[in-house]
């Protein structure tokens, strides 16, 4: 089978992966490697020829070998069971590359003075795996989100297919169609296929980098703010059921669940809508879990779906703005009003 031909001079260590139909895991694995200075200018060779793979410095998703010392990162071989530390999902080539190179990627993003063994790097390495990479590993290894036997026993059926909305589907759609016209020259045909792979690698890589940017620049700085609010929660409720962000709201759910350490106590979170003077305030219910639509304690049913003066009269609280029909969030013109909504809702 024809192999890739380099289009321009490449000076980095050569990366190898398989040709033919491509998937999200090797597309992301290649992109993550190229994020690092060592591999930034690396040539990519897509082949299943063992002799050509031997010429590659680093090989992902092909070759039947996992050996980090030799930079071989395949997961298809019999007996492969490697997982990310603290997780149970078997790794794909993306997970393997992230396991070994992820801390370097995170440290690089945080700044040149940050070392790979820094606590914040460890925190982000774990978070990025759980929030992004693990789902890709599971998808490539055919691992369902829910236990199929349990789903079947419960008699549950999907209401619709979500397949078109996964990153795996996004990458899959970039593969050539079976009936696309192909160049008659095998070399040109391979080049055309490789061009589609490069597009797919860039596409999923952009999504990964968006997550990396969010978790390093927004999620991580929010941690200390949530910690401070968590430490002060008994100032607003003796049982610590109300969390207040006095300056501005930040991404709080992940950090709150971690700080609670399996002992859920916070029911409502209060925060201003903006940093502007006189900004209105929100009261938001804490979900039972990060991805749940079920609140630990929804706002009173009698308030739901009402607004403004009508809601003032029903609740007995001045300055109300709204309460969502589902009861998971509401608003008031002032902090004092939002706090009173929390007090009454707790009662």
Automatic annotation (TrEMBL):
Q: Where is this region: Disordered?
A: 1-20
Q: Which InterPro entries match?
A: MYG1_exonuclease (IPR003226)
Which Gene Ontology cellular component annotation is one that this UniProt entry carries? Answer: cytoplasm
Sequence intervals crossing the membrane? none
What family does the database annotate?
A: Belongs to the MYG1 family.
What is the designated name of this protein?
A: MYG1 protein
Q: What species is given as this protein's source? A: Pochonia chlamydosporia 170
């Amino acid at each position: 089978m024809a192999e890739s031909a380099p289009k321009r001079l490449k000076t980095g260590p050569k990366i190898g992966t398989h040709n033919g139909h491509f998937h999200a895991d090797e597309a992301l694995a290649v992109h993550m490697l190229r994020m690092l200075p060592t591999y930034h200018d690396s040539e990519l060779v897509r082949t299943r020829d063992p002799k050509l793979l031997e010429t590659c410095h680093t090989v992902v998703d092909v070759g039947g070998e996992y050996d980090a010392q030799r930079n071989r990162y395949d997961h298809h071989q019999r007996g492969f069971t490697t997982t990310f530390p603290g997780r149970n999902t078997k790794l794909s080539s993306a997970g393997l590359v992230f396991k070994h190179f992820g801390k370097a990627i995170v440290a690089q993003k945080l700044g040149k003075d940050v070392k790979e063994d820094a606590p914040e790097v460890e925190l982000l390495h774990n978070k990025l795996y759980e929030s992004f990479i693990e789902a890709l590993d599971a998808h490539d290894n055919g691992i369902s989100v829910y236990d199929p036997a349990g789903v079947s026993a419960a008699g549950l059926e999907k209401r619709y297919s979500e397949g078109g909305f996964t990153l795996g589907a996004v990458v899959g759609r970039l593969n050539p169609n079976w009936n696309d016209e192909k160049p008659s020259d095998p070399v040109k045909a391979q080049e055309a296929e490789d061009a589609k792979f490069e597009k797919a690698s860039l596409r999923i890589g952009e999504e990964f980098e968006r997550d990396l940017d969010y978790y390093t620049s927004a999620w991580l700085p929010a941690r200390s703010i949530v910690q401070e609010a968590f430490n002060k929660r008994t100032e607003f409720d003796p049982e610590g059921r109300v969390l207040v962000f006095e300056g501005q709201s930040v991404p709080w759910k992940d950090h709150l669940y971690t700080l609670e350490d399996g002992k859920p106590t916070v029911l409502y979170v209060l925060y201003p809508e903006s940093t502007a003077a006189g900004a209105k305030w929100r009261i938001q219910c804490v979900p039972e879990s990060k991805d749940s639509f079920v609140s630990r304690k929804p706002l009173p049913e009698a308030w739901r779906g009402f607004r403004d003066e009508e809601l003032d009269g029903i609740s007995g609280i001045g300055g109300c703005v709204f309460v969502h029909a589902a009861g998971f969030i509401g608003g008031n013109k002032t902090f004092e009003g939002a706090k009173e909504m929390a007090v009454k809702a707790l009662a």
